[in-house]
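In these records, each integer encodes one residue's backbone shape. Here is one protein:

___
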Amino acid sequence: MKTQNQLEVLSSKCGSIIKGGSQIRLRKKVKEFLHLFSSLTDLRRKEYVIYPIENLVGICFVLALMGKFTSFYGVEQYILLKPGLFVRMGLLKKGQHPSNDTFMRAFAMMDNSEFKEMTIGKMRSFFEKVTKTYEIKGKKIISGDGQFVRGTRIDHPDGSTDQAINILNVYEAGTGIVIGSTIVDSKTNEIPVFQQYLRKMDLEDTIVTMDALHCQTKTAEIIISGKGDYLMRVKDNQPALKEVTLRLFSERKPDSRLEQDGSTYDLILLPEGYISPEWAGARTIVAMVSGKRKGRDGKEPEVQYFLTSLTDSEEIVEAITKRWLIENDLHRFKDVQLGQDLIRVRERKALRNMVTMNNVVYGLYRIVASLEGRTPQQARIVYGDRPVGLMKKTLPLMMGHEFGNRVKAAMRGARKKTSETK
């Protein structure tokens, strides 16, 4: 059974939805887009407030679209040198120059849950409408993985080091949405943080993919008890499981073999309870040889092993393929295109809100890329120096009633063309 891929549906069916319409009307609504932030609770002391919270966040959002939101000092300097853009948008009055401390204070005091709900929440609502409108079936694929913000590492003169801050991202492959980003405390690691996140999620009809670090019996138990499925990479951190896996592939032939995009997948179905209850729900082990790695440096690609609760071969191959997106697409885009690795802010609340801002920007670029048949990197090249253009392009989709009206109009147009050709 094919898994959900809303971005693929946008690419094939929704392109016409963003075409047409009054450009003048859209220009007027750019301000409405930025007022997504207008209901943010401002926790600053009112008697000292000069700049509305939505204006400060709006400025940072515009700079994030341009890949220039890497420090609050940088925001201050950009405004000093190029204030005209923000004046034209109505975010600043002529002569206003908020300081780097003003931005830091706003982001450090902003409620992350509220911020995420009015941004990521809007995007999720949009994709729910896409799923319902086009009757998209299949399971969702989500992935969990950590991403260090390397710029936050500090090497002190006395030889001591403040390690780079690690952010655990939970990512939905079919929509390109980062469901959540949580700072991993230095006294712990990603494993319990991810497990806690999974406990709170509705995992029904969901496949959870993860790297070897999260290949844990407790994680498998949480996912199965939540009525979800999992696919875990098997490596040396679970020696007993790896030994069983290697032995099975040496003693018997695979139950099935699939080939896709030059990669091969050998599947062995596990007898009920073969390695359970230690590994709850385990039903299949997989040996995969990646076609993309063949011939690199003259070496044969290593065999990669996976343990999964799935038995459907198509779902297994899709889950393995899409598990790379969180690293190769999300993390790379944020580090290379948005400069997240350059962030040096160590104040935890401010940093989490900056990362959430980048998650929003990444999601918008994924949407536009799908609609225009581009990669997110290409969309960034096209719109990186004209953020207003990107806002105009995505605003009709983010506004619930407008999306519904445009879908209906597009479907009526498609039916009319079909009847004319008969």
